[in-house]
Amino acid sequence: MASMWQEFSKGLWKEIPPFRVVLGLCPTLAVTKSAENGLGMGVAVIFVLVLSNVLISAVRGIIPKKVRIVCFIAISATLVVAVELLMQAFTYPLYQQLGIFVPLIVVNCIILGRAEAFAAKNPVHLALADGLGMGMGFTIALTLIGSIRELLGTGGIFGHNVMWNGFEPFGIMVEAPGAFLALGTVVALMNFYTAWAARRAGLEVPENASCQGGCSGCATGQR
Amino acid sequence: MREIASMIVVLSVICGISGFALSYLKQTTQPIIESQVLRYVQGPTIRNVFPAATNNPIEERKEVALSTGLTTVFPFRVEGKLVGVALETQGKGYGGNIGVMVGFDVQRDVLLGIGITQMKETPGLGTNVAQPRFTGQFPGKGLEIALKSAGGTIDAVSGATISSTGTVLAVQQAATLYKELKPQISQLWP
């Protein structure tokens, strides 16, 4: 039980995608024009990620090593088409908003990344916890970016106006560049907080919390 | 050899199960998806064609066999009395087909209004055919519709001759279908 909680909670902060595990950037940048879109995309990813993790973990014993990637993609593609059909049948307006990005979940690196790195090596209950945690982390992240962009770009959150009268919306935040601004700012704040917390606890401050290697390492090519 | 066989078997089984699961899901969701598309894509256009209707034209729609094949026809009622019908036709535009929903007044044989259901025209030019300035010219016009350049009464959108022609062509087609449909209307929606 303790290990399940550990696998679940790591997706919510320590390895939260896409801030810490910088995967799945295409939907992160493309669909987060509003908080609602971010939430919808996140829920679709939770569905696919949890089921693909569980299924892949369940059949991990019988999949030959050489064709494992093909099998993973076949399973996740099936789930994505299922999500697309269900979305069209029950939440059509959301499907109209997300459009092409729903079928593109199949090439979302988080799905294949968790399948290869976790589900293929761990029992079903841990894979379930991992998928749920990662999916919820992704949903929280997308809703957060969507809220920031919607708040600054239109003055509302989830379609409700919350800013004061006379607030002049920053149109750029709901355009493509706004996605980069919002994502970059959140990642910077998270790194700043991590460094601050480590310094306060008296630990050594990692030079770059995200990649652990430090920028100088990459720049000089020593690592 | 055994390895290759196991690869083939495992992959085939996974793909087979996926195929069956998806075809089942597709079959079960198909009718729901169709009604959703009608509601969210064509529904708003139909309502705009004749906002005074008090019935639900989508629920009372009927497939009618006309010379061009099966056509879906949507009836408009005001307090139970049939006042008009709408049907969708396609006209060739600049970037593909333009779908036009055309409404007809069944008592006076004139147009109730038109609405664009789908198009891929040039934004800011061709897309202006969906603006009220263009579509607003149609209500009340008789069944012989043509652009002013062709001796008719409709002003084309300036700079978007192809899109305007395509839209008018779709309306003309709808008028032809309407004439064919006219004798059956009172039996279809008493």
Helix content of chain A: 55-70%
Largest sheet, strands/sense/barrel of chain A:
2 strands, antiparallel
Strand order of the largest sheet of chain B: 1-2-3-4-5
Give the CA-based shape of chain B: extended
Q: Please state the structural category of chain A.
A: mainly alpha
Structural class of chain B comes to alpha+beta
Biggest interface reads: A-B, 22 and 19 residues
Biggest pleated sheet of chain B: 5 strands, antiparallel
Number of helices of chain A: 9
Would you spell out the secondary-structure blueprint of this structure?
The complex is a heterodimer of chains A (223) and B (190).
Chain A: H1 2-10, H2 25-30, H3 35-58, H4 68-90, H5 92-98, H6 109-117, H7 124-154, E1 156-157, E2 160-161, H8 176-200, H9 215-220
Antiparallel strand pairs in A: 1-2
Helix pairs in contact in A: 1-7, 3-4, 3-6, 3-7, 4-5, 4-6
Chain B: H1 2-49, E1 62-66, E2 69-78, E3 81-92, E4 97-105, E5 110-118, H2 132-135, H3 161-181, H4 185-188
Antiparallel strand pairs in B: 1-2, 2-3, 3-4, 4-5
Short characterization:
Chain A is mainly alpha-helical. In chain A, 63% of the residues lie in helices and 2% in strands.
What would your notes on this structure say?
The complex is a heterodimer of chains A (about 220) and B (about 190). Chain A has about 220 residues and is an all-alpha fold. Chain A has one domain. Chain A has nine helices and two strands. In chain A, α1 packs parallel to α7, α3 crosses α4 and α3 runs antiparallel to α7. Chain A is globular. The C terminus of chain A is likely disordered. Chain B is of the alpha+beta class. Chain B is about 40% helix and about 25% strand. Chain B has a five-stranded antiparallel β-sheet. Chains A and B meet through α4 and α5 of A and α1 of B.
